[in-house]
């Protein structure tokens, strides 16, 4: 009886603690499918490796990879510490001007990360998709919602060879290339973490974003 009550209580705890939290993909491949699904619904987990070509920027020069691999712990650590030397990205085989970039940072309660889909032709954001491990609805979990992510679509990543950084003039908003975007209300630390993560991504992929390298 006690054992039954214990498992019932655990089940209720897990149920209520997951309300409002995103269902985290179990692998980077699932994350990529999620990131691309709004704009390219034909890409699935089954055909992902046929639809994407994996690359890495090594000393600012793109290099096609021989196989599709998930990130390891070492690479995640390098992203967080901004010591990355081999920066991965992906190209859509049937849309050769589209690149998928990766970013990683720290929110209020733990890691946050995301993918940015970019049109390389004019350095414009096609879509973004953010994930988190432990944020709550009052502390930044809304970075996963469509209304927040949709603000970034159509924004320029660079202009005249200069990177356009995300800035945070106050707790409730961002500015991006002179355009105001809404931040998550009441989630200052996660908002700042996302800003730092985004600007870190700009630095990591600067060779691609400023046109200093060509594929």
What does this structure look like?
The structure is a single chain. With 215 residues, the protein is an alpha+beta fold. The protein has one domain. The strands form three sheets. It has a six-stranded antiparallel beta sheet with strand order 2-1-3-4-5-6. Strands 9-10-11 form a three-stranded antiparallel beta sheet, with helices on one face. A two-stranded antiparallel sheet has the order 7-8. Strand 1 and strand 2 form a beta hairpin. The longest helix is centred in the last third of the chain and has 17 residues. 28% of the residues are buried. The N terminus is likely disordered.
Summarize the structure.
By secondary structure, the chain is of the alpha+beta class. The protein has 7 helices and 11 strands.
